[in-house]
Amino acid sequence: MLHGLSGRALRFVLAAAVTALPALVTTSPAAAQARAAGFAASCPAAGFISDPYGGARNHDGIDIANDYDTPIYAVGDGEVINSGPAQGYGQWIRILHPDGTVTEYGHMRQRDVAVGDRVTAGQRIALMGAEGEASGPHLHLRVRRDTSMNRGIDPIPYLEERGVSMPCTPGRRPAPAPLVYPVEPGRVVSARSADGRLEIFAAGADGVHHAWQTQVNGSWSEWERLGGPGNAQLAIAPNADGRLEAFAVNGDTVQHRYQLSPSGAWSNWEEFGTGGSTVAAGVNADGRIEVFASGPNGVFHRYQTAPNSGWSGWEPTGGGPAAGRVKMEKAPDGRLEVFVLNGSVFQHQYQTAVNGGWSQWEDFGGGGHDLTVDHNADGRLEVFASGPVGVFHRYQTNPTSWSEWEPTRGPADSRLTSDRTADGRVEVFAINGDTAAHIWQKGLNAAYSDWDGFGAGGSGITAATNADGRIEVFGTSRDGVIHKWQTGFSTWSQWARVNSTSGPPIT
């Protein structure tokens, strides 16, 4: 969370954050040609997308909201063709790129470049402001296919084609295509469909229940009962073609179901194996889903033999903690890493090469209650584990070395989840029977705040990120499923039902 926002900036964010993003569009021939001609883009600015392209106002660009003096960066290499006052904008900058496209930046408080300057991708060109027709500090980013166009194209797919997924974390080097990081597994899981809408699955005694956002960043459908294993542990992952696939395990069975098309309807449940304790799913660098499940004889895995295709049989992993809780993350180079914890043992293993085989299991600490794994803005993994005296964490000091365990205090014997804020900082959420609390990094790759109250106790918790970068948290208890979401950079809604009913009770 970005603390210290001015009142004017916060009012602007709160007013704008309820606007929904449009559905993702298919790649146009012009965009495909631009990719072939080629430049790798860089993130234009940190912040929330407070006003999308199009919509009821026919908005010609996107607005990225943040506080005054937030740096603005050139999307790509190019020549500055305008820099100065502009009607409506107050001030603007326009950059002509080698592929003929033009990016346009408006409302800045300070300009750092002049007409004729050559800029590089990720170079700072201005500071954010609210000059001209603006209700608060933000960057208006517009993209034109050439200098003759009167109307811009949608900046989001333009940036996606060039390797930047919005919202983004700025940097001076062109960003590679984003890695697909594993979704947090548990009794409740949430992931975004290909069109940007969050979907949620919750496992009750009578099977799995499902709800989904009826529009991007918007409100939720009613709960739909899907059947499937009762009192299951759940995992979810995207196929290479964008279709989500869900996995459910209890002591008797493992089953899965999948979208029949991206953002579309779902198949029926299909058998996927015999029972187990917990399950996690991740995506290899080549797009193949890989599933790990723990049971009384250790940890087993199963993987797609090709993207969007069939599956291997279940294979032993050479050990692993019996009946442990399984979590996965992805190293900066695309290798998956698996962490498994039970009451007495904590171990991990990792791919020895991208899309490749696995290491032997290695000790990672003593046992505990639950864990969550996330990645810093620089890609280093960070692990949190709870136990009877609170929450501890351990983090990579480089790609092959780890710190020692460090205490953070926090709720004892809590369920844990984590996600990243719009600017790339890790935020961790914990819940036990008495309380919920959260901590957050005070800067990119930095130390953490103290634990702060986040609500009453419950049985489980998971976090997901909306398409506009706002974190949404789902909590479970015997009273059902409730959620809480960011309304701005540092503000949260109250806990509320997901829809008009309570959803399945989860103990």
UniProtKB/TrEMBL annotation:
Keyword hit for Signal: yes
Domain PLL-like beta propeller residue range list: 188-500
Stored CDD domains: M23_peptidase, PLL_lectin
Keyword Signal annotated: yes
Coiled coil, from the record: none
Domain M23ase beta-sheet core: start-end pairs: 58-147
GO MF assignments: metalloendopeptidase activity
Record's keyword terms, sorted: Signal
Signal peptide region: 1-32
InterPro entries hit by this protein: Cell_wall_metabolism_enzyme (IPR050570), Dup_hybrid_motif (IPR011055), M23ase_b-sheet_dom (IPR016047), PLL-like_beta-prop (IPR058502)
Official protein name in the record: Peptidase M23
